[in-house]
Specification:
The complex is a heterodimer. By secondary structure, chain A is an all-beta fold. Helices cover 0% and strands 51% of the residues of chain A. The model of chain A has no long low-confidence stretch (mean pLDDT 94). By secondary structure, chain B is mostly beta strands. In chain B, strand 6 and strand 7 form a beta hairpin. The model of chain B has no long low-confidence stretch (mean pLDDT 94). The chains are: A mainly beta, B mainly beta.
Chain lengths: 113, 111
Amino acid sequence: NAGVTQTPKFRILKIGQSMTLQCTQDMNHNYMYWYRQDPGMGLKLIYYSVGAGITDKGEVPNGYNVSRSTTEDFPLRLELAAPSQTSVYFCASSYGTANYGYTFGSGTRLTVV
Amino acid sequence: QQQVKQSPQSLIVQKGGISIINCAYENTAFDYFPWYQQFPGKGPALLIAIRPDVSEKKEGRFTISFNKSAKQFSLHIMDSQPGDSATYFCAASFGNEKLTFGTGTRLTIIP
C-alpha cells in the first residue's frame, strides 16, 4: 500500500520559474491537503480539498494554485517562484475530517534561487 | 495568528527520563487535540489524540494530559528512548474542520 506519494523529492528552481508538485493517494480518501513546513514555524496550510472538483484556500495560499480533478490526485502549482517559497512541502490525505487522522507523504524539498 | 502555541522549541532528555512537551490554545471551540511525530526525511504521523471530555489519555509510554480550564495540553513520554528522537507537533481542530498545528518540538534522547 503506497499511501500518499509525492514527487519530486527535491527540486531547485530559479526565481520566476514555475513547477507542479505532484501528490497521489491510493486510499480513496476524500480529503487532501497541502502544507508547507519552515524551521520554527510548524506546518502551515496552503490549500485543501474535500473532494474531487472542490478546493479551498488555507492559511498561506498566495503564490500557489491547486486542482482536484480526481479523488487520487491533488497537484500544487507554483507560478513565478520566489525565494520566500523555499520550503518543505507536504501533501496529506484523510478519510474524512481531521478526527480520522492525516496520512502525510514524505515531502518535497524546494529551493528557489 | 498563532492559535496553538507549542513549547519548548527543542528538548534534550536523557535515556529513561520523562519528556514533556506543552501546548496552549486560544480557541475554546477546539474539540480535538492530536499529537503528530515526525522523523527526519519523513512526513508527520499521528501518534495519539484526545478530546476535551477526558483529562488524560495513555497509549503505551505516551500520555496526553488535558487541562480545559487552562486551555493547555501536554505530551508526556515515559522511559524515553533514543528511538523517540523526532520532531513532535501538537494540533487542534473544531467542528471536524482542518487541523491547526503548533510550531513543533525537536526532541533528542541522549544515552
